[in-house]
Amino acid sequence: MVTVTVSSAGRTSLAKGLPITVDIPGKGVETATVADVKAEILKKFPKFSTSRQKLALKTDKRALADEKTLKEVGVVDGDEVTLKDLGPQIGWRTVFLIEYAGPLLIHPIFYYFPKLIYGGPVQHSRVSQYVYAMVMLHFLKRELESIFVHRFSNGTMPFTNVFKNSGHYWLFSGVFLAYSAYSPAYSSSSPYVRGTLRDDPNFLLGCVAVWLFAELSNFSTHLTLRGLRPAGTRKRGIPKGYGFSLVSCPNYFFELLGWAVIAVMTGSYAAYAFLAIAGYIQTVWAIKKHRNYKKEFGKDYPRRKVIFPFIF
């Protein structure tokens, strides 16, 4: 049996009475895991779900991974760990579904009800029709991937974060892009469209071809990442194969390529704004993942760029 003292790292209304001592019968520090400690805490405080619990060493604020043994994280028998309440949680899969649902709901409203938005009818041009199809197919793909493809290293996140995460998609790729792309400025009779590349079938079909390449490539990289993580684990391997020979995060690169196509095809300020915002966010994510890969795998991790082939 191993014994661990659990003290509070702050106000924890769901676990009044800390510090406490929990016992894990039948296991030692070599076999007892952080998840076992959380399970014992849950027994004492039934309303304090394990997803809300953040355990850390007394000398370190970093969260201890659930699947690690106590020995692996540096906890010995009789040692002390701190407990913090992360607040109400929501599943990552649910967050993704909510994020991508926004544009799927918003774009049809702007596309099919122009009188409600612009005060009059709009005869959609070919470029608007293509944008509508591309946006809807992209986010439908993302919803299906969230359900059937993605495996998440973290099961939950703070509930309040869903509003911040969703705002990026609902506002910029939802309201702003839809308002621009289906407006009278992009109607079939608009001088901004007629007689320009935006009215050229060859140009538009070329854009669709590049966009389709980006979407299928993005899907391929997601399948590769899924294959690296066995179901129910946080284990990671070195990603290899299509796209990964050039950059650490080709999934981000191909997604940005798809949005760049829409921006070039439309020339819309909203499309370029979303591309810039998404590019910044995903570059930050890619840098973090690239560093984590190098830290985790060391010399075994191959030399490659972060997100943009041959550039960065």
TrEMBL record:
Positions of the Ubiquitin-like domain? 31-83
Membrane-traversing stretches: 167-183, 203-221, 242-263, 269-287
**What biological-process terms (Gene Ontology) are attached?**
very long-chain fatty acid biosynthetic process
Q: Mind telling me what this protein is named?
A: very-long-chain enoyl-CoA reductase
- From what superkingdom does this record's organism come? Eukaryota
Instruction: Fetch the InterPro entries from UniProt.
Output: 3-oxo-5_a-steroid_4-DH_C, SRD5A/TECR, TECR-like_N, Ubiquitin-like_dom, Ubiquitin-like_domsf
* Record's keyword terms, sorted: Endoplasmic reticulum, Fatty acid biosynthesis, Fatty acid metabolism, Lipid biosynthesis, Lipid metabolism, Membrane, NADP, Oxidoreductase, Transmembrane, Transmembrane helix
Q: Which family does it belong to?
A: Belongs to the steroid 5-alpha reductase family.
Span of the signal peptide: none
The membrane topology of this protein is: Multi-pass membrane protein
Native species: Cristinia sonorae
According to the UniProt record, one GO cellular component term is: endoplasmic reticulum membrane
Q: In which pathway does it act?
A: Lipid metabolism; fatty acid biosynthesis
Write out the GO MF terms.
Answer: very-long-chain enoyl-CoA reductase activity
Identify the SUPFAM superfamilies for this entry: Ubiquitin-like
Statement: the UniProt record of this protein carries the keyword Transcription: no
Q: What is its EC number?
A: 1.3.1.93
